[in-house]
Target: VLRF1 domain-containing protein
Amino acid sequence: MYLDESLSGSDSSESEDENDDTSRRESTLTTLLKKQATLADKRNGANADEDEEDSFSKRKRKGGGKAPLLWFNSPLLPPNHYFGLYRTILSSEETKNDVDLVEVIRKKQLQPLPPPKASSNGSLQPALHKGPHFFLCMIGGGHFAAMVVSLAPRSTKHGTTGPLNREATVLAHKTFHRYTTRRKQGGSQSANDNAKGNAHSAGSSIRRYNEQALTDEVRLLLKDWKTLLDTSELLFIRATGVTNRRTLFGPYEDQVLQSNDPRIRGFPFSTRRATQNELMRSFIELTRLKVQEINPAVADKPQQETSAKTAPKPAKPAPPKLSEEEETALLHTSQLQAFIRRSKLPAMLSYLKTNDLPADFRFHPADTQQNHHSPTPLHLSANQNSAALVAGLLAKGGADPTLPNGEGKTAFELAGDRATRDAFRVARAELGETRWDWDAARVPPPLARAEAEKRDAREKEEEEKKEAERRRAEELRLQSQGPKVPDAHGQGRGRGRGLVEGVPKSAQEKREEEARGLTPEQRMKLDRERRARAAEERLRRMQAGG
Model:
């Protein structure tokens, strides 16, 4: 089977199709990789027999797949230094015969040409440029950028060429941007509609409109550039996603780009957001000759060493299988911790009774950080500052408050607020001193429930009084900060002030005076009261008139 006719790995021999058609369809990727590996081995053997009289001779990297770069050596370079060229800028016809690659590259070295004159809108007329050129296009995330760049460098006034980004002649360029991506969630609106159905919001409607508008703008631009696209040597396109590819490749009426066009290439390196600067950077990266140092000792290692390095790593050993007792302990742990986090005291007590579990059940596994810090339901309840759970476990569940955790702390020492600590003191008073060694549990002296409730009520009443005093002081402050009307002589007091105050005020002035110094919330409340009084007055008049 000859593979020279299928360098890209996209064709197959007739014998393979006839003998194993089903297998080829099921594992296409495996077949292509095998063909590329066979081709690489064959070419490596052929290159070893070639004469090295030429000033340039091609150097290929060893490996199963085709590398994106072609490497050449030259006497102009230091030892172990090589020229690199992207394989993708060569057509399939040019890469059929590796021996002629150097001659093909020499022919691509074009002489500088004067740039064609631009039209009034900034783009070049297609008929004014007949030289070779590339078409570059990126679309994604609502961003679109396209550019047609001449391959012939621009000639300067002094006959020299400048930096490559200034030397390139842009025949046409255009960028579009539309809001089509869902904020914070990602993905296009059309993809979300296909997955979950059409959303009925203002943002989704705007995104759908912008997607269609972007599609229309891109297709109209491609139609205007049809002459430039038809004469382009290669078409470099980055369009990920079904929606973006449908925008470029249709099908639609008067379609310009065809997905099966042999000139279409992808960018063999990472690219960023679709902008004009990114397209120019990509063009420079594609057409610039690379120089790199390659160590022959590393590059010429045997194929078996490469295969050994690329061999898949052994799978991690599976975790040991748990016993039935361990699985049951894990189940009880997850259920009890869920009840505690949601403060479900009746459900937790019922679960303990139904499964015949003690109130001091030890969570499993004990070596985790959480279970080391809170090994029992009482520890976890105190750590969660749940006074109700602590009281229920001590009074109804019979939990032992003297048990320490992995750090030597009792449940009382994990309580973070006074209400939870009071629950321990109330339980000490109600259960009695003989029930547990409360001193070993680090629980302070007992506290009667009535005394605790009385103290809470007293503190609540004091807080309400403080809040009432604060509101009263705020009202007095607002009243005292009302505006003062000066008299006719500029004095704050005197006979003139009485004359001014005697002038009757309009209803609008009264409303404005009442609203002075009020916060927006107070003004809204005042407006509601006015409207309510007005409605009551209208209702009273209607009843009186009836």
